[in-house]
Amino acid sequence: MRCWLAGRGRGSGCTATAAQRRRRLAGCRHQTTTPSMPWAEPGLRRKRSAAAPRRLVPRGFSMAAVFADLNVPGAPERKSLQSLLEAAAHLGYSTVAINHVIDFKEKKQEIVKPISPSELFPSLPIVQGKSKPIKIVTRLTLVVSDPSHCNVLRSTSTNIRLYDIIAVFPETEKLFHVACTNLDVDLICVNVTEKLPFYFRRSSVNMAIDRGVYFELLYTPAIKDSTMRRYTISNALSLMQICKRKNIIISSAAERPLELRGPYDVANLGLLFGLSESDAKAAISTNCRAVLLHGETRKTAFGVVYTKKTHRASEEEGVLPVRKKAKTEV
Amino acid sequence: MSVPLRRLRETPRHLLVCEKSHMRHERSRHAAHVRSHAYNCRVSFLIPECGILPEALKSVITDIGEYYLVKNLSLHELVTHEFINTFVKKGSCYALTYNTKIDQDNAAALLPTGKLIISVDKDTYEELGLQGRPSQYSGKKVMRYIVTIDLTDSAFDPDSKKHKRVLWALKEKKPLEFDFLLSWHNKGAEGSTLMSYFSKNQIQAHQPKATFSTLRNLQCPVLHSNELHGKLEESCSAQELFEWLGAVCNKVGLDNKSFSFLSTCCCPQPSTVVEQAYLCTITGFILPEKIIQLLEQLCCYFDEPKLAQWVTLTVHGFADSPVSWRESEHGFQKGGENLYNFVVFRNLDYWLQMAVGANDDCPP
Amino acid sequence: MRCSPVTGERRACAVARSLGSIAHAQSTVEPDGRCRSCDSNKGAVPLFPAGPNIAPTPSPTFHRFRNASQHHYMKICFVKFQGGGIRLNAAHFKQLIISVGAALPVDVLTYEEKTLSAILRVPSSGLVKLWSALTLLGSYQNRKCAFRVIQTSPFLLALSGNSRELILD
After folding, report:
1. Considering A31, A276, C83, C85, which has the largest number of Cβ atoms within 10 A of its Cβ?
2. For the CA atoms of A146, A149, A153, A158, what is the dihedral angle to 10 degrees?
3. What pTM did the predictor assign?
4. Which of residues 80-99 of B touch A (CB under 8 A)?
5. SS3 of C9, please?
6. How many C-beta atoms lie closer than 10 Å to residue B2's C-beta?
7. Which residues pair with B119 in a beta bridge?
8. How far apart, in whole angstroms, are the C-alpha atoms of residue A100 and residue A18?
9. Per its UniProt entry, which superkingdom is the organism in (chain B) (predicted)?
10. SS3 call for A315
11. Distance between CA B360 and CA A17 in Å, rounded?
12. Looking at CA atoms only, how far is residue B34 from chain C in angstroms?
């Protein structure tokens, strides 16, 4: 519960029942209140935010426990990305994140604006066996090997705020610790392609779990190569020992449609990584939802002001950050 | 062995319940079992030594009744008093959401008893503001809730507080919209039909699809109605029959030898070869009332002397329905199997086999 | 326990554990006296209407097999890279499964060459292993390929009626 409801950290104590009670108290007509916390009475809301200056998850944002693949590499060619997304929809994924990777070791890395789904498809592909179209979100992954690389996360005015999810791939133990304890990220990628360069420390991992940050395991390397398969499984198992099967998501990083696997297949793979049946299924559904909600809290200023996400259709005036736009609309 | 390794060998939970009784036994509960399994997507029966279907059976199949698919129907339409009075209270009304996955999406089902069961994820539950209970299969971190509303309850009068609140929750608080499979069974009484009632919505009528096939030279296991567990060299067990029937329905060739390269699966022994067997499969949204009719007709098949020793009737439930038998919760872990099979013997003894997968209660 | 043995209403309940290799779960019947409500059994006189071959039928009996399926069944489909001219007959397919599924005794129950789809039977304890092995297969004869698992079940019969395949309109 603490992982998403409380948004950031334990103490905020916002449980479902409490929320409900508040809602009932408020007699609830949420159209009239601000979209930020429709369930709470204004008076209560102010009190709450004063008492707990932590970010609360905006309840207006709803995403069921559908299957999600939070790592679909944003390929340069539009066509291959389209076919990947179509394949994901066909396999039964309801949410996918297009991943943009920034590796600071390479020169001239610029954080570009995230790709918008409307650019890709005139109409989004329909998820197989459902009547709904697939939901596309954007994700930024920073590969950090030096503490200075993390500065970009602290700057406010960059395109970074336009991404729905921010992930970080720490290459040293120190940076792993920083990522777990300090950085404002939603996901920490775990190296699955080579022998772990460092051991996971329980203190940092626990800190990350407390903050609601998730760890990501990839399965595509295991499909491509048998050595990587060994590393994937052994690294996953050693992470599982430390994190006690909590806060794990599994995603693909598939570059081709044939590298994608169906949700139930991936859930079964989770057993190989040391998860239990229900944990494995959570790793591709409810945990992904928690990551998205965690990312969403970044767009709220400490849970006090929440800007309703207008559809990016208004791309012509997209220069303005979403937050400002909403302000001007008011 | 370490925990993760042990886990790799574990089998997901599943249950097969076998029951033996007599069709005319006054305590036989076969009809109750059929009636309590509300949502059925496929019915098939197998008659060994049968070339042509008797007319009586044929007519049951042809009038198995159509069902309706209503697109984008708001859930609150099912709790309005007009609907309750015209359909729910005057017959058995069945409704089940279509194209919703019980392990991912919200789903709803209206039972013929007048209970409306809404299975929703945590977000929806909190927005909905109706009282429910956590799902049995969601573990420590509850992500799914079940809301049950009794539409025929006396406390659910048009002016009651409860009714108002439900209507408000489903209409204004959190409007839920689904594609519904609908069907209505009433005894004789003429009234307005679902088709005209939902004419404003997109409604389509569908006829269950029936396929017929004759299987030649089929190896059938020998069964004795008294031997549910089988007897070595004399008869096969209920479990073996269940497997064998699966092989027949999936068109698995069983004539291969046990040393074949491809498959070592063969017909349980002892077996006999029957020259022809009649297999009929009906697919759609099939009401229990119709299945009872079908079962009755299959019993009548033995009124005249027949070569067949037994016949079978298999019924598959919906993998994504929120309930399996009665109101016991149904879930989907890796598969949502909930099915049952009747083996009716010549002397009208029967075996009933009910099978469920991981996220299901024990069948009644 | 409210049922009396006199009325013969007792329902034997066979509970068999599945883990590992119980070969004959069904033969280890332990009538542990588990019974469900049988309130109606007081002085019940069975009525048998006329019918062919009527023999006095004992009262209903009831047996339960928990996790007793020795096998699991998988409906799978093989997807290969477009334009690859690989023909895969049943024997090749089985060979492929063997090469993937290592030491597991897998049976190919049905195979359709046109659609490259098959139904496999695998011992229950090997399901997870075979499934993950199939999932992790990435290439066949140096061409990209994949297995798509359509359905798995402990009951072969369940594979013949998947409501998720019910497509209307």
Report:
1. A276
2. -170
3. 0.81
4. 99
5. coil
6. 9
7. B107, B146
8. 38
9. Eukaryota
10. helix
11. 27
12. 16
- The yes or no reply on domain A67-300 and CATH 3.20.20.140 is yes
Chain A residues whose beta carbon lies within 8 Å of the beta carbon of residue C146: 258-261
How is residue B179 written in tokens?
């594609």
- β-bridge partners, A217: A250
CB contact under 8 A, C149 and A269: no
> How far is the C-alpha of B239 from the C-alpha of B236, rounded, in Å?
8
Residue-wise pLDDT for C63-90, tens only, equals 777 777 789 999 999 887 766 566 788 8
CA distance B197 to chain A (A): 24
Q: Which residues in chain B belong to E strands, given as ranges? A: 15-22, 40-48, 67-74, 92-98, 107-110, 115-121, 133-134, 144-150, 177-185, 202-206, 209-221, 271-286, 310-317, 338-345, 349-356
- Across the interface, whether the CB atoms of B302 and C162 are under 8 A apart is answered no
Is residue A297 helix, strand or coil?
Answer: helix
Read off the pLDDT band of C43 (50, 70, 90): very low
Residue from C77, C136, C169 to probe the interface with A (highest A Cβ count within 10 Å): C136
A272–C contact, CB cutoff 8 A: yes
Q: Is A17 helix (H, G, I), strand (E, B) or coil?
A: helix
- Residue among C74, C160, C169 with most chain B CBs within 10 A, to mutate: C160
Answer yes or no: do C128 and A129 touch at CB < 8 A: no
Average pLDDT of the segment spanning B264-290:
89
B349-356 and A135-144 strand pairing? unpaired
Task: Give the separation between CA A167 and CA A298, rounded to whole angstroms.
Answer: 13
Are the CB atoms for A57 and A8 separated by under 8 Å? no
**Chain A residues with beta carbon closer than 8 angstroms to that of B5:** none
Q: How far apart are CA A15 and CA A1, in angstroms?
A: 8
Cα torsion A184, A190, A196, A202 to 10°: value is: 60
**Which residue do the tokens 């997507």 mark?**
B41
Distance CA B65, CA B185 (A): 9
State the Cα–Cα distance between residues C88 and C74, nearest whole angstrom: 19
| CA–CA gap between residue C155 and residue C152 (Å, rounded) | 9
**What's the pLDDT score for residue A322?**
45
- The pairing of strands A165-170 and A187-189 is parallel
Sign of CA dihedral A114, A117, A118, A122: positive
Contact residues for A107 (Cβ-Cβ < 8 A; gap 6+): none
Residue A30 and residue B272: Cα distance in Å, rounded? 70
Helix, strand, coil shares of chain A, percent, nearest 5, are: 40, 15, 45
The overall average pLDDT reported for chain A is 75
Distance in Å, alpha carbon of B248 to nearest chain C alpha carbon: 9
pLDDT of residue A8: 37
Residue A301 confidence (pLDDT): 54
| Structure tokens given for B263 | 């498959």
Does C44 touch chain A if contact means CB atoms closer than 8 Å?
no
Domain boundaries, chain A: 67-300
Per the CB < 8 A criterion, the answer to whether A41 and A25 are in contact is yes
**Cβ–Cβ < 8 Å for B229, B238:** yes
Average predicted confidence (pLDDT) for chain B = 88
* Dist CA B335 CA B16 (whole Å): 15
Tokens of B207: 């006829």
Tens-place pLDDT, residues C52-64: 444 444 566 777 7
Question: Half-sphere exposure (CA, 13 Å, Cβ side) for B331?
Answer: 24
3-class secondary structure, B43:
strand
Q: Is the confidence at residue C129, as pLDDT, over 80?
A: yes
Mutation target for B interface from A281, A292, A293: give the one with most B CBs within 10 A.
A281
Across B133-154, average pLDDT: 88
Residues of B in contact with C63 (CB under 8 A): 17-19, 228-229, 238
